[in-house]
Amino acid sequence: MSKLAQHMAFYAAYHRHPHNKATHFVGVPMIVFSYLLALSYPQVEVGGFPVSAALVFMAGMTVYYMSLDAVIGLTVGIATLPLLWLAHQVTGMSAAAGWGIGLGAFIVGWAIQLLGHKFEGNRPALVSNIWQMFVAPLFLAAEAFFMLGLRKDVEAEVEELVARGVPGATKPAHA
Fold this sequence. Notes:
Helix content: over 70%
Strand order of the largest sheet: 1-2
Low-confidence stretches: none
Number of helices: 7
Number of strands: 2
Strand content: under 5%
Radius of gyration: 17 Å
Number of domains: 1
Structural class: mainly alpha
C-alpha cells in the first residue's frame, strides 16, 4: 500500500457520500484560506521579500504532502498559491476587515462542511483525529485526480483499506 493510501483511508471512511465530498470542495478551501490569512500577519523580510508564517507553513505541508505522493502533493502546493496570495492581499486591509474576512471564511467554510456531514450521517474525521484537518487538502486533490481518471491505483488502495475497515473510524449512518 502507498503511504498516501494509508493516510487517506481514515479520512475517506468519513467521506463516502457524494454530497459530502462536494461540500468539501467549497468548505475546505475556505477554511484553509482562513488559516492562511491568520498565519499571514506574522511576517519578516528576507531579501526584500515578505515571508509569512503562512508561507513557511504551506511550504512545510507541501513537502510533507509530496513525501506521500510527489505529483498530488505538488498539486496541492500549487493549488494553494492563490489562497496564499489572497491572504497576503487581505493583510494589507485594516485589521478589522482582515480578521472579519478570515472569521467569515472560517465560519462559512465550517457551516458548509457540517452540512456535508449531515448528508453523510457522520461527524467530521477530525473529531476522531485532529491531524485530519491537515490531510483534507491532500484528500481533495486526490479526489480530483480520481474524478479525472488519474491515480486509479491509489484510489483502489484507499477503497480496499476502507472496505476492510479503518481502525478508529466510525461508520456513517447511511452505510
